[in-house]
## 1
Amino acid sequence: MGVVALCAPAMAQQGSAGGRVWVFFAAKGEAGAAMQDAIAAVEQGYDAHARQRRALRGSAVSLFDESDVAVSAGMVDAVRATGARVHVESRWLNAVSVEASAAERAAIAALGCVRAVEPVRAGRRLGDADTVVASGAPGYGQRESYGRSGPQLAQMNLPAMHDQGFTGAGVRIAILDTGFRRDHAVFGSSVHPLVVIAERDFINSDDNTGIEAGDDEGQHAHGTLILGTLASYSPGQLVGGAFGASFILCKTEDVTSETPIEEDNYVAALEFAEMHGADVCTSSLSYSDWYTQGDMDGLTAVTTIAVNIAASHGVHCCTAAGNAGHDEDPMTSHLGAPADGLAIITCGAVDENGVIAGFSSDGPTADGRIKPEVLALGVRTQTIGYWDTEGFAAASGTSLSTPLVAAAVACITQARPDWTPAQMRAAIFARSSDLSPDPLFIRGYGVLNAAAAIDPCGTADFNRDGDVGTDADIEAFFACLGGNCCGSCDVNGADFNGDGDVGTDADIEAFFQVLSGGGCP
């Protein structure tokens, strides 16, 4: 059946009231051999890095399928013929979002090719939990070369990854946010300059995510804070967690709008990022005002569905849990989509001592899964200022802990490029700071430990006191074998080699091999 027949008027359905709407089509325009030809054409023209990523760690049944084919141009034209203005086309959802009057929506709903017409939900950027303030003298961490960012990276054991050469080199990180200042001094290093391989402004439909004429003065602020935690490289001042990575920048939020985040921009940006080879995607956005906690089941919200598809193509997705706070009732939650995603890494926030931040949102999901899952510094996180080209800032919120987690995931991806999103999640959860997941769904698995995540065995600093391979480590290990594990001991405990068999001869052999410097057997 042709497109014209598919789009012939049908019995009118109830139109949506107010706002932008999604138009979901019943099928793609092509079928049979034509569809197979269309899929083959998409694959042939796809970004080589994206094809390689899909082949390496994708979990979809086919490398490319019908969901990769563009929405039928004929069906989109039929929607336009009603007078509606198309904003976003989503191949993954087989849908378009449109601005339309009530009469136009009714006409769209009457088209035979249309499956459903639903409102585009809007949400909120996860605004800073505390006011962004200028940062003064550097607060040096373990090494002066990291400057202000030393403590927040050391808390995740990320400098140990950098020492091994894992800085995110060869990895592409997508950021979905408000816009980005790229003329800051920390991005101009001759050794590690900021590298942007693709960008798209989904608000103004252009290819500039920087400061544009007519932008609100705060349009680029939040995105710049996020980019600074990831990509900065100014030794002694500020070093980002994944300074060796390349970036895909997506401007998705209009800060002047009453409802600044619209999920169609998010979906379009995620498809754009995946198509341009994103290995990691980070976002600090939340859609909750138009969804209920009952919808947070990992399968319902449009943004959550899009994240699930991206993960099936091998993209490691990170998102903020939110700044709605938490309680000690495990039956209540304060999540927003896509933090409920099945394969997304949902990030909460702690202070410099590893204590959960009061604003950090809790889970569980509607179907009882642990959220948030990992934690990073989200209280006075150090980054760059957005007001000039030299300043530095301290900001708080799960918005800031999330790109730190994404930086660690990028470095782990460089070290373990074949890990699927499921394998990445399992590794970092098993190696995070807490011995068991939080039954109150506030801390998840604890603070991420990047260097430990890439090694299936534990560390020779078994008791995690900073002294490696001492008698105290041996005593703590054997005490753990006897069922008396210390609270700060290696997260795998008596299952030292992480093979699922607890306290075996293999664990003892692995411990002493690591202790002697031989590495994990």
Note: The CA atoms of residues 3 and 347 lie 44 Å apart.
## 2
Amino acid sequence: MRHNTPWFRLIATTASGAMLLSPTLAMAQNQFNAPQYQTPAPATAQPNPQQAEDPPAVVGRVAGISGTVSFHTDDQTEWSPATLNYPVTSGGSFWTEPSARAELEVGVSRLVLDQSTELGVDTLTEATTALTLNQGGVFLWIRDMPQGNTTVVRTPRGQITITQPGHYVVLAGDTDHPTQITVLDGGGQLDGAGATVQLQAGQTVSITGANPYQTVVGPQQVPQFAAAEMARERPPVIAAANAPPPVVQQMTGGDALISVGDWQASPEYGRVWYPPVQNDWVPYRDGHWAFVAPWGWTWVDNASWGFAPFHYGRWVQVGPRWGWIPEQPGVRIMQRPVYAPALVTFIGVAAGVAIGAAFAHSVGWIPLGPREIYRPPYRHSDGYLRNVNVYNVRNVTNYRVTQTNVFVNRRAATMVPRDVMVRSEGVGTRHQVVPQQVLASARPLAGRPVAPTRATAGVTPDVARRLNLPQAAPGAVPRRPAAPGPAVRPTQRVNAPGRPEAPRPGGTQLNVPQPGRPDGVRPAPGRVEPGIAQPGVAQPGRPQPGMPQPARPDGARPDAARPAPGRVEPGRPQQG
């Protein structure tokens, strides 16, 4: 099945139209009945020229992986393996191999990718979520839709604008199978090729053809993968004593703390969550570091529940147990919690300390404790500094006070050789035993603890150019594992109603429906199947990649042939 053709780009541009979009999918009508939150207010009323440079307050996460799941950012031209708990931001794209499945979370809302699905996250901000479904199917459970927010899903045959909380299933389809939008509950609108269809609960809208399209509205049809998701969605019955505070329900990854671990009340810290870990466990030690734009150094934890407790709140040791504090007691802030890449203080050993000589080439960090201020090592405004701390530091007037060297969790500091952090290696087996004399001499670092390299996870071509990272010598940087996926094409983004941005290399390119297999699945590059044209694989009667191709009847230039990622062809320059 061929998707990337000039025909598709023309039709997709016509079908897409303008998008005013939305993301932060807050929690809605569920058993917790969480309060509505307002947009964070800046710390001062004076305009701050740096406000526009604040990073997004909301991100998603890779919440589940089954089988082979691939990922790339919009400036990359190759797929790499997706990682559990990796942050999901604007410009990321995902691919699931046959028999694979992926689950993404944004706040308390979920997106589940069926097998053989290509999904791009075009825009993800507090007020905008825009997705592009090139092929396959996606199940969406949007548990809240704050006023003024929208969620948009682009397909090869039109654009779906979701305006109500509910359950939705979208199948991209191909020329042999219809594009289908099923609304189990909720509502929205479908726009494509000049037609508008209102989406109502209990219905499935099927679209066939290619400009003009034929649209049929009928009773709901629930695909098998979506029915399975509905069956596993029944919320657990949680006793009030073990229910998380409402603010946790607004955090990406907060749902994972409902049925795992233990919530207990503390007179000093309020509601405290205790993770299911061994006695020698320490926060920010079972995982690795990545350098994720625009924040920089980002902690990626290995635990299935390891997102919310490492990007919100604070940690404290209560007796022999580590507990996570989502908010200080008595907080009455009505705003969404702001995501942070890692709530730690990076430390370094003073050069003149003899006992610390063995740690001169090490980097360390201390988990922030109760009421300790997080000072982002990336550019931010005063309002951002307030909002990222407001749930955990009561005295908002002291945010600019110089940080002291007294940290409640100092004894839980972790230090590793710098190469462990730079190469994004697992920390758990490489951390060093640090004498207390060395920790006593350690000082907090104001900026980045160490510069990333091209070997660091998350360092994309754009990041490398922006940081002016040098090219590594051949063989000096281990090649990252390749992963299967459709050929990566430039993205056509929409930055204003009706005004598409110029294509950006490596992003999600919407595909026109093409003849497909009976199951509607397009094989990944390198996967050879009878009767399906494959890059670099000769098939009788089909134009071959790298060979001159006849012009189409309308005079348009045929698609340039492009080998599958990782395929080396004679005379063709290769990346990397």
Note: The CA atoms of residues 504 and 540 lie 34 Å apart.
## 3
Amino acid sequence: MRVEFSLLSTRINLHEGLPNFRGCSTTENGRSRLLGAVIAMVAVIAGLVAIAPQPSAAAVQHPSLVPTAPAIGYPIIRPTPTYFTVNGNCPNGCTLPREVMAVDQLGRYIVSGGNFHEVELTNGTVLQQKYFAAWNVDTKQIVCANKFTFDDEVLSVASGPTATTVYVGGRFSKITGGDGVIRSRSRIALLNLADCSVDKTFAPLGANDKITAIVRNADRLYIGGDFTAIGGSAIETIAELNAKTGAVNTAFNFPTTGEQVGRVKALALNPDATRLILAGRFGMMTRGPQAVVNPTAVIDISVPAAPALTAHASTGYTPGVFDLQAASISPTGDTIALAYGTATVSDYVYLSPTTESSVRYRWGHYMRDSSFGVAVSNHAVYVTGHFCKLDAGPGTTEVMSAQMGLDVCTGTSFIGGVWRSHIAALSLTDGTPLPWNPGQNSTNGGKAMVVTARGLLSGFDGDRVNGIRTGAVAFFDFGSQIEDVTPPSDVSFLSPLPDGTVNQPALISGSAADNLAVTSYRLGVRNVADNLWLQPDGTFLATYYEFNIRAETNGGFSTQLALPAGTYSAVARAVDAAGLRSANDATVRFTETGNEGEL
């Protein structure tokens, strides 16, 4: 365990519970005893923290809630022409807009799938392009226009093995690529967006029903859907394929019973790719002596030849468990958000831990009307659906106002509540609606939502968000890191005061501004008397060392340091999402007494 990790968050304080060093000598012997105690405490906390799942370096970290204004200038997926349905949402028959059912940023591309037929370019040209569309996230230009032809819907997308390839899953059985050749690809295929081709090597025999979720880890590809057979094997609901060839791993077999349509709503890997996390209407899943009831399951995939169903099971949901509409696993893999709808009694969003034992959901928030899409960031649980007025939260909740005329839904007939127009952000802590309400003009409700490194993508059956015409995909974009050439401002220290005296532990805090967002701070601490720098193990050396401190929700930073009595100089710079640093070091000099005090 390194002191550096303790500085990543003020929630982990290496100095809490240290012995009282009041009156401790500042001699070398006294200093050594103090440092020895600090290092010992570091070792103790290392042992405690090691049991908790830690985020990987690749985990998405947003600086704040995403902007309320969507990005403009991208191609527009049109919700026309409408289609006729007699499903449960329209028992007497009705027409509905076309919609996006899957969307993600895969490398430099935004990729969408659904039942849509038309894509409008920025010059007004309308392409007849069914079920699939992709464009460059930076140039905003469509790729492979009219090059791919699918015979049915695309319902899931995932990154391929190279920067220009993407996996697609859905209901389709045939695809025509840029070469004009029709190829059989039953419910799953690998596309290359560089030359608009259908990959010839990845040619699985395919599934006998739709594929709704895909996730890849190196050469292992995991898929989920309504199938009962794939690649000629009697494997149902979830399967593992070779990511290069599509060959089925027959050792990966988890039978399910009591399933309903839409049995897999989400698949994801934990950061170290040892667990596959699943949510859906899969009924009961079994493997050997272990059995888990929907809506969530966690599978140990650390040994490819012997995957195992863990004891994870989430409980406590309201009636209508098969009203589950969408799910999303957090970037750190430690929670699953579940969105329910279609029955008023079940119109909740839940956040559940992925603990590998029976566990109750962390919180449930009543939305008063259906939710059909959900996504989890490190700042919020984002939700989309047909709701417009939902319950206030246990925390302070801004009522706000109805957006874009979206003021009619089931929730308006209930007393009180707060306005959030078909799209909302809920607190990770307790589900309280956050002050974020751009509005989204869905008819049925948003269906696809995903957190990306640059923001949030929302796919729905409308064409406007926050009054802006986006088409059926809205991109709440923090901005391209490549295009960001403005470094953060120099750091302003809030504490300690210049040349001030502080008790132990010293609170060091500050802030900086950026055109997009400050994501972290670099901090060095120098002992003025001997010109030595604080190291991650608590010692002092001549070598400069800087600690990495994650920016807090407000954009600033704070940390506590228990140091031997003496005079110190703290040096800091801010870092933004593009990796740009403040132009100059900010320095504050202070004296720490070595006595504990109230902070």
Note: The CA atoms of residues 323 and 340 lie 5 Å apart.
